[in-house]
Amino acid sequence: MSETLGFLLNDTARLFRRAFNARTKGSGVTALQWRLMIYLRRHEGIRQGPLAELIEVEPITLSRMVDRLAEAGLMERRADPTDRRAWLLYLTPHAQQLLNSIAPTTDALVAEATEGLSAAEIDQLTRLVERVRGNLSRRICPKQVGKQEIA
Length: 151
Hints:
With about 150 residues, the chain is of the alpha+beta class.
């Protein structure tokens, strides 16, 4: 029996997370925390609410994750100069170093996952999965946070 596309994508993502977590166990960073830091690197200075929407977790879940990353010296909250009730999120230099040090591990994981595929096949697979993601993510997102686009 052939698997459905949704099952294959979900199972592949699960296996990626498992492999990532096994390879980065010593770093103290989980796959979900890595994902959060990658999104934050792309959108530094974002508020917690829009970031929770981007990574699709509940705001309270994100708040706990940010607390843990802040305690580990990987993220910091700064007061929003336009709204004193809000906080803006930034990666610390230590987080930037950690992301850079783990990048070869993620590159090796992708290489292992795409073993036997040609460069053209990898490019095509990437483009097709991006299209599927785009089709599924057609929802209203905050248009701007400060001067940065969020889409």
